[in-house]
Amino acid sequence: MNGTQLKNNVKLSSKYLDVTYINNKTGTEVIALQNINLDIKEGEFICIVGPSGCGKTTFLNTVAGLLKPSRGTISLDNQEVDGPGKDRAMVFQTPSLFPWRTVMANVLYGIEVQKRVSNETKKKAQDYISMVGLKGYEHHYPHELSGGMQQRVNLARALTVDPSLLLLDEPFSALDAQTREFMQEELLRIWSETKKTSLFITHQIDEAIYLADRVFVFGARPGRVVDIVDINIPRPRDLNIKRDPKFLHLIDHIWSIIEKESAKQGFQ
Amino acid sequence: MHKNEVVQLSSNLSKGNLKKIGNRNRGLILSILSVVLFIVVWEVVSRNEWIDPLFISSPLAIAQAAVIMVQEPTFWQNMRVSGYEFGVGFLLAMVIGIPVGVFSGWNKTFNALVNPFISGLYVTPKVTLLPVIIIAFGIGPGSKIVIVFLMAFFPIVMNAQKAMHTLDQNLIKAARTFTANELQIFKMIALPSTVPFLLTGIRLGIGQGLIAVVVGELFASSAGIGFQLTNDGQNLQTDRMFVGVFVITLTGVILTTLLGIVEKHFSSWKPEKN
Fold this sequence. Notes:
- Chain A contains nine helices and ten strands.
- By secondary structure, chain A is an alpha/beta fold.
- Chain B has twelve helices and no strands.
- At the A-B interface, strand 6 and helix 4 of A face helix 9 and helix 10 of B.
């Protein structure tokens, strides 16, 4: 009884996952991810941090179903992931909005692809546009919006298909520092309203700690999980906690893990 | 005093706007002045016979010839013939060129099959095929339709292909995560992306098609603006010949202006230049 409950509580599970690919130029096999074992619980906000080349984006793409595992499995709600699905939606690093579609039409894109356009889903799109703070911009085109606003559309588009798992691939990395911090705070507000299980990739340690319930630290060459750090900072969190000694301590802690990892690789 | 007014004005309007309005008017005025000056100089040069009027006619003589010509039934007959030849040839170029370009850009197999011909014929001066086209299709409208088609086809095909080769891969990735299938990606990403490129292809095609009509008619024909132009030239009626030239120029200007309107309608999503 207890065992099944615990099992049901697991949203996403990666078991013995390897992802390898053939380098186009050299023709050699590259191990992008090696033996990834992790579980993400229902409603959790997980961040993955790690140096470039640690395979964090590869992992996200595999969860999204864009890449196939070479070994092992990824399962979502106890179902093995085999290609993209309606239960997942992704927020991209570049906004990837359709330039010929208005904000509203962009937000409805996923719904249209999945042939679920109805008054109900249209209302939902409107609700998410309001939630991300773009009420009044429904009929604007992407080029009329700032980078931060475009990323809000990107987020609203993903939320509107009502995924059970939200995948975020460094969505704020192209924004300026101030906008980025503001968007982090906004994301937490939206997350607390939707309670979607979220998997967020970043290379910024403070961003990861601020957002996450748990931070998975990835190491490079081959990409693998080197540590899992629990973030026991109560919610709701405002940006001031970034100056809290506990927060700074967590940054130091994750830095030291990454540094140790790099030293092992001889990158120092 | 004057300076003060300007300062006040620019504090009311934004500086950029003021500059824009000023530039636009200034540009238009300069363009009109330039054309007027050209016509005046032309008239003067011709009147004083600094250059033989047989070669250059004169603006006034051309205007008089135009007034007479628009009253001749043969002029309108010639317009109809040329319009028909251009219209049918150009329509064929679009109807065949757009799908061929789009599909060869999208599908690698189809591309491998047709691309040798497209790349090869693209660089072939199509005019060199005229003698054989006329043997095959006669001196009537048929041969002109074929040459218009051939000359307008390639800019349209090449631009459609280019559109498919420059698709935004980020958009395709986004579509895939939303479980879009190939057909949906084609309809919802590939096709809309081609619009600006197709319009460029059509614009270039219009220019090529107009050249084709005239050259085709110059070469061998019994009617059409190009035919009239040749006759008038051979009869040393330079004024009438120039009317023919202007008619063709005007057609090109009208068609590209119409295309510009279509372009504006389709690309309201594109960032404005300037």
